[in-house]
Amino acid sequence: MALQCGIVGLPNVGKSTLFNALTSAKALAANYPFATKDPNLGIITVPDERLDKLAEIVNPQKVQPTTVEILDIAGLIKGASKGEGLGNQFLANIREVDAIVHVVRCFEDDNVIHVDGSVDPLRDKAIIDMELILKDMDTMEKRMEKLKKGTKGGDKEELRKLEFAQELYKHLEGENPARSFDVADGMEEVYKDLYLLTSKPILYVCNVDESSVLEGNAMTKAFKEEVASENAEVILISAGIEADIAELDTKEERMEFVEEMGLTEPGVNRVIKACYKLLNLITYFTAGEKEVRAWTIVDGWKAPAAAGVIHTDFEKGFIRAEVIKYNDYISLGSEAAVKEAGKMGVEGKEYVVHDGDIMHFRFNV
After folding, report:
1. How far apart are CA 68 and CA 66, in angstroms?
2. What's residue 285's pLDDT?
3. How far, in Å, CA of 344 to CA of 335, rounded?
4. What percent of the chain has pLDDT over 90?
5. 86 vs 75, residue with greater confidence
6. Is the Cβ–Cβ distance between 252 and 26 less than 8 Å?
7. pLDDT for the residue 230
8. Average of pLDDT values for 8-21?
């Protein structure tokens, strides 16, 4: 799967520090704007407790988790939609990703400068929102010009598309992101083909100080209230602490640090899982003596497409899928016990794969 999340935000909000913690890629993280000039691409392991439990039962030679790609994008400033700062590069990079992780700074620290001189997460969010909306309005203006030419011959379908585009433009003009626009029936493909920046699903990460990791602070409370209508998830983390956790050598050391903080898992785990969900991805498993492995697919895929993730021949020559539900495998303790209990399903080409399915594909090429 080549789907990507992009980390965005103003300069010096903690984007690269978070990226380093997520990927341990040691991207440049400096206390000045544009420390990240070229987008850093990281491959992140998706934490999944189910994989560990399957491995405990099967005891395979190898355990292979699934991954998701994340891009650390240069900091944006006011005027980016007109090319200010690294605006053109930022907007080009964000156009390429499938979902957005928007990092906002929610902590005071005189040693970490803010590009606008003071810490205000609501203002910071508004700056980025407006720059993306302005760029989308520019995109819409160009598209409407093309549609107007297409309506000169009286084509009703082109006219309908133009009316749709005009309504969407008014929505953007009201300083609203495209993702909150109610797309009319039959216009889904038209909307999708616009590739608007503000149509991408979004996750907000509030970067807080150590004392605010559990309960948040006045800034995070105000921020959550501001984005409540967007139906977007908000996660609180301390990027600096997460970077410290990532430096520890063993899983045991990391978990001890996490528990001392009063947490149940590292904040980066919650961010990764949220990214996975944001991209509309699910996991199925294969389990055998040689390998227990997690595989990534898009939610809603049918069995042949899921098989194709392993190898294209599996999809081309698909015959059937043998499916075990995760809970059945765990409760019964082995594939043999599942079969004996009559809990293994045999599914055809129309079977929609569910998150957590344990699958074995039969194929012939």
Report:
1. 7
2. 98
3. 8
4. 58
5. 75
6. no
7. 83
8. 87
Residue that has been written with the tokens 């594939």 in this structure: 335
Phi and psi torsions of 51, nearest 5° = -65, -40
Percentage of the chain beyond pLDDT 70 is: 90
Of 24, 182, 6, 212, residue with least CA distance to 121: 212
Cα distances from 226 to residues 82, 122, 233, in angstroms, run 26, 8, 12
Specify the pLDDT at position 88: 63
Residues 6+ apart with CB under 8 A from 85: 33, 34, 75, 76, 77, 79
**Helix orientation angle between 156-173 and 121-150, rounded to the nearest 10 degrees:** 160
Give the CA distances from residue 361 to residues 309, 338, 356, in Å, rounded to whole numbers and listed in that order: 12, 17, 15
Nearest alpha carbon to residue 235 among 207, 255, 212, 211? 207
Confidence of residue 109 (pLDDT cuts 50, 70, 90): confident
How far is the C-alpha of 215 from the C-alpha of 10, rounded, in Å? 24
Name residue, tokens 């006045």: 218
DSSP state of 357: -
Residue 82 — very low, low, confident or very high, per pLDDT cuts 50/70/90?
A: low
Q: E strands, the chain, where? A: 4-8, 40-45, 62-64, 67-72, 99-105, 202-207, 234-237, 281-287, 291-298, 318-324, 345-347, 358-363
One-letter amino acid at 173 equals E
